Amino acid sequence: MSEAPRHVHFVAIGGTGMGALAGLLAARGIRVTGSDDTLYPPMSTMLEQWGIPVHSGFRPEHVLDPRSDLVVIGNVVRPDNPEARAAIDEGLAVLSFPDALYRLAIAGKHPVVVSGTHGKTTTTSLVAALLHETGRDPSLLVGGYSHDFEGSFREGQGDHFVVEGDEYDTVFFDKTPKFLHYGARTLLITSVEFDHADIYRDLDHIKEAFRKLVESMPRDGTIVAAVAHPDVRDVVSGAPCRVLGYGVEGDGLHWSCAALETEPNGTHFDILIDEKVVARAFVPLFGKFNVENALGALAATTVLGVPLDAAKAALTTFKGVKRRQELRGEERGVAVVDDFAHHPTAVRGSIGALCQRFAGRRLIAVFEPRTNTNRRAVFQKDYARSFDGADRVIIRSVPKRPIYSATGPVEEFFSSEKLIADLGERGVAATSCDSVEEIIEQLTAECRSGDVVLCMSNGSFDNIWQRLLEALRGFAETSDRQSLHE
Questions:
Q1: Is residue 302 part of a domain?
Q2: Residue 341 lies in a domain
Q3: pLDDT digits 0-9 by tens, 221-230
Q4: What is the dihedral of CA 224, 158, 166, 393, to 10 degrees?
Q5: The pLDDT of residue 132
């Protein structure tokens, strides 16, 4: 493919990264089309706003009539997909998503890659927002909706391209991790834990992927790593370039923080460099893990030439990311929060953050285990501890359908019943429901003014937050009408 493509077709366009790249190319004036089985907000809404036509289902004619100049294939696509098969068999130019992103957007820029099991999306958005607010005009592609940029991508004229780099595999014909394809010169690692059980056997297998990323760094590059976490410290131990360690607390940290203080709008904290307080900062986020994300972003942007005072000032205006502790609304005095948390560490962090943000209010956590990892029993015990701080837990039951795993057939499944029993032993009232309708019925009946409902899932969760707000509103209106007639 010697010339820039005039027509690019995306197979499985609904993924956050795929959709974002499609939007970026469409903004350049390139004709972009796509196809997918199912789409849901926010990506379905954004694709519509960008004017990108999306076919429902996969058919060979979507890539052949007319012939696409380039076909980008997502990592969820299987080898027998009709569109992927047609593109390859007919000799069309075909690229994986990460290779297309690098060739069409990142090449020629300074790649700033943000990786880690948790916090990638928020930290990627933070780094880009700090660069933008301090006049660096960065480009961005992030696996979520950034409120600061009103979308998931930005094409700037500055030197830096900030990209969220995940460890999931690239595509069916290239099983290497996606983050190896971006040519990182500045690398930020937020965390390393076991996840993606359909791809990785265990924690050591995950760490092997991160070590390859670290080993790929140029000698004049820089790694900003959350080395307060032992597994992060382990994977960067053989780095060929400079490593700057950061963390909320711990030994041997170049960047650390102290004196965390929560207020209604966010968190104040001291910034320490080599154990010396150099500044007091504020981030409009909650929870120790979000302070750590902010600290990593500050460290990375100073590496990129932004004065700390300027970056610290820009931090105060950060608007956040959709579905990351996002307050969706309040009805009947009940606050409804939407969150992406699904891993035990993320669940624990989100609950802890909301306990700070809504101190003194009853917290009801609603959880949907739906990934190939959390539908297994691998984190069963960890989840029991993850809900500490919640006053009430409702779990959406998951049918025991077959799960694909890197270690073969799965015989031990996540058990809602066992989690309920374990939570009961820890003094947390918990129940399970088979459907979202049943969950909403329970919440509508039992919620009272002052409650906070935290909905956690990495999927659409059948739009539970909106349906709950509507149900609470309808319940209130019905109650008002009844009281008028009494």
A1: yes
A2: yes
A3: 999 999 999 9
A4: 90
A5: 98
Same domain membership, residue 254 and residue 128: yes
Of 54, 71, 99, the residue that ends a domain is 99
Element (H, E) at 431: strand 429-433
Q: Are residues 36 and 168 in the same domain?
A: no
Domain span holding position 188: 108-315
Cα dihedral sign for 109, 167, 402, 381? negative
For the chain, how many structural domains are there in total?
A: 3
227 and 161 in a common domain: yes
Residue 199 in this model has a pLDDT that exceeds 70: yes
* DSSP labels, 401-421: -----TTSS---B--HHHHHH
What is the C-alpha R_g of the chain?
A: 23
Residue 333: both structure tokens together: 């005095």
Structure tokens at 359: 């101190």
Q: Tell me, yes or no, whether 81 and 120 share the same domain.
A: no
The string of pLDDT tens digits covering residues 204-218 is 999 999 999 999 999
Question: Which tens digit of pLDDT belongs to each residue from 317-328?
Answer: 999 998 898 999
Q: What is the pLDDT of residue 482?
A: 45
Longest dimension (CA), the chain: 78
The Cα–Cα gap between 234 and 230 comes to 6
